[in-house]
Every structure is written in structure tokens, then in C-alpha cells.
Design brief:
The chain is an alpha+beta fold. The protein folds into two domains: about 130 residues, no CATH class; about 35 residues, no CATH class. The strands form three sheets. It has a six-stranded mixed beta sheet with strand order 1-3-4-5-6-7. Strands 2-8 form a two-stranded antiparallel sheet. Strand 9 and strand 10 form a beta hairpin.
Amino acid sequence: MSREYPDWISPGRAAEGKRTFSGTIPLTRMKRLAALLVDAQGEASFVAAFKADLDKRVIIELQVDAALPLVCQASLEVYDEQVKRRSTLAVTDHDSEQAELPDEYDPVQTENGRLAIASLVEDELLLGLPQIPRKPDMRRVEYSTGEQTLKIKDPQQGTKKNPFAALQGMLKRDKQH
């Protein structure tokens, strides 16, 4: 584990000094994230650059990178989801300040005027998790409904079938009878 950062930071002072903190954090330290992973043995790397914008808001340019072991919901195999996120965060002290932020900033609220870097990194990784984990190299999936097997082909093959084609055939048969 690389530690070039303190546990708690005063964002105002860090922005005044235009400080940049970086390092790695073990996934085991991130309890909310670790509960969603197959194995929390890896680590996440990050760079957090503090500055002030033209309106004197404290801004954090945050970059997070990690390989998170998840279970593919199509194949049920374990794979590493590569999460790389870049965010621009605006520091607020109260909920009421968040409504005043420009759209390009994501709000982050201080706790007693301080921020925990590990918590910022964990939040970004949680936001980077897919809703339905699926291995990136999954090309074809077969689903079984008991008697019949449905085959789903690679969506990049470009062949599209009309979903109502079977219904049209049934209507034609009914008209002939």
C-alpha cells in the first residue's frame, strides 16, 4: 500500500496550497464496496488534486483506477471489472449549498470541515460498478426455458430480426382458415 496522503484532509487548506494527493488503498478498507465483491484482496489507485475555481469553490479533480472482481451475470464466472473514473467534485459544508452548484460539478459534503480520501475513492468505485456485471468479452449467451433453448447472438453482427415477425405469421395463418 502506497501512502502519500493523510486519512483526513481539510479541503480548504488543500485547495489554498493546490495540493495533490495520490496513492493506493486496499479494497478491504472499503467496507461498502468489499461487500459487493467476490474477493477484496486488490487495491485501488487514485490521484486527488485540490484547487479553487473562479467562484472560490473548493474543487477536487479525482481519478480512480481499480480492477474489481465481480460475478458475470450471464456466465456466472468471476472476472475483473476495470473501473477508471475521473470526476470533478465541489466541496460543500451543507446540503443547501449543493443546489447552487453548476452541473459540471458533483457535490461532496464535508464532515466537520474535513474529508476522508478513502471515502471519496470508495464512492467513485461504487458509482463505477455496473448494474448488471457482464464480462466484456461475452459474445454469445444461451438461455434455457426448459424445453426450448434461446440463442442470443453477438449484437455487433448487424443482423436485426423483426420481433413481430412470428406474430405476422400467426395472423396470416388465422386469415387463411
